[in-house]
Amino acid sequence: MTSQKLFETLGNINERYVIEARESKTIAKKISLKVNKTAIVAAILAIILCGSAAAAGIMWLIPQVEIDENKKDYSFALVESNYEFPGEVLSKIAERTPNPGVGFEFESIDEWQKFFDLPFVAGDITIAKKSGARSYITSASSDGQFIPDLIESTVFVKLAPGEYDRGSAPWHAIMTVYTLTKDASIDKIENTEMGYIINEKFYFEPSTEILVESETDFGMPYTLVVTKAGPEEEHEHYEHTLYKLKLIYGYESSLYHLELNAFGEDEYEKASARLKDYADTIKIAYPAE
Amino acid sequence: MWDLIIICVYIGEREKQKGVSLLEEAKIVRLYLDRDGSAITATAEKYGGYCKTIAKNILNNEEDAEECVNDTYLGAWNSIPPHIPDNLAAFLGKITRNLSLSRYRQNTANKRGGGEFHVVLDELSELLSGNDDVEEKICTKELVNAVNKFLDTLSPKDRAIFICRYWYADSTKEIAVRKGMKEGTVSMTLTRLRQKLRKHLIKEGFDL
Does residue B201 have a pLDDT over 50? Predict the structure, then answer.
């Protein structure tokens, strides 16, 4: 076989990968967007110092979102309470997880809720077909005992078009739920999936700002953040600005992070309006019996 | 009828769209299906730069690249319908890639052209045993499946680097700028990925 023939053959690989690579090409120079570790550590300290807000009857987590103008990044934190795994849940996890950091996949949110015995806090979204919930439980233990400290669950969701974009296709978004457990400590957190997220670098020129800090009709505080990335100058066909919108809210020990992308000013306005509308539909669903 | 098909094809694909909205893409496909000549203008406007980048990466020649891009529009016009692409960008990119490769072969025979694409081919030759008889024995479909399987095992970042180099024929410098990496690191990553792919293909029973 010749290298030309091999190059030609590679032209038939899965289109999904070609598109995925093209998407990474659309996004301009890579400047790291790091979640501020110091802010996370400070927030964790706040947990330890302030104790559980749940005990005081406050069930909301107030999103601690801060923008660092110099680093062009933002930070968010889990504050006020953390989750204590019921013994039953712990044994289920231990059975399925001989090693920390293993992923769990659930067919549905119902299944996810039942497994972790956690509420699911969401608005008028539907779970994208074939998505289920993908969860990672991280832990560390010096004596070999498995002690989970952070659950990170990701689910692909769809939001129906809102008032401003009737007739359009549904919005596709990613919801990530972080649940910090009671046994977590600062040094463990830094080595968990959360630590990975903290260090993850995003492929765009970031310019982050807080759009809205408000609360839902239900009384739950939320923050809407946008990170903008300009079109790449050297490739004239990428004509739209990318807007990464993130709605951040929390309940009990979990922090919710709903993210969707919009392209161009028009779509961005619709998407931010849609996320604000979504926030007002948020409800708490407990696991079905 | 066509509306329904288009909706079926495109529904739920919004997250794949970067730069060109879902509706814009669907509208362009619709123009092809309606045999509306403005399909070509719309394609040139939205995807002209994208296709030209691919052609130029392979051909390293402005004039040849322009011709290949124009032929891409003609190819799309002749294929849609009956074909309805799942993703118009990938579809057009593939046509451009194939046309550019044909032109490259022609140019090489005439001793014209050159540039970075020679290096891409040299790199790919590392995966080959140098036995020309092998080509006859290999089922392309199975080879593609094996490569897909390999790509599945890579991190999104490594996969994007691999595809940018061996699908889009991007230069290592261009990849480095985009990924915020040093050019040397990109080259190292590509070397590692080629070695990994070679091992994978051998394991899958391919001796190229």
Answer: yes
**pTM for the full predicted model:** 0.44
Distance, CA of A58 to CA of A192 (rounded, Å): 27
Q: Are strands A283-285 and A208-215 parallel, antiparallel or unpaired?
A: unpaired
Query: Does residue B124 sit at the A interface (CB-CB below 8 Å)?
Result: yes
Residue B56 contacts A where some CB pair is shorter than 8 Å: no
Cβ atoms of residues B181 and B191 within 8 Å: no
Preferred mutation among B3, B9, B15, B92 to probe A, highest tally of A CBs within 10 A? B15
Q: How many helices (H) and strands (E) does chain B have?
A: 11, 0
Single-letter amino acid code for the residue at B8: C
* Cα separation values, A24 from A19, A87, B45, B129, Å: 9, 43, 21, 32
Q: Which helix (H) or strand (E) holds B132?
A: none
| pLDDT score, position B130 | 62
Long-range contacts of B30-37 (CB under 8 A, 24+ apart): B30/B2, B30/B3, B30/B6, B32/B76, B32/B77, B32/B80, B32/B81, B33/B2, B33/B6, B33/B80, B33/B81, B33/B84, B34/B2
Would the pLDDT of A239 be above 70? no
Q: Distance from B201 to chain A by nearest Cα, in Å? A: 13
Query: What are the C-alpha distances in Å from A176 to residues A249, A271, B77, B179?
Result: 11, 18, 42, 25
Give whole-number Cα distances, B202 to A6, B128, B142, B150, B192, in Å.
Answer: 15, 11, 13, 12, 16
ipTM of predicted complex: 0.76
In chain A, which among 168-227 make CB contacts under 8 A with chain B? Answer: 168-172, 201, 203
Tokens of residue A174, six digits: 């990613």
Check residue B13 and give its pLDDT.
Answer: 35
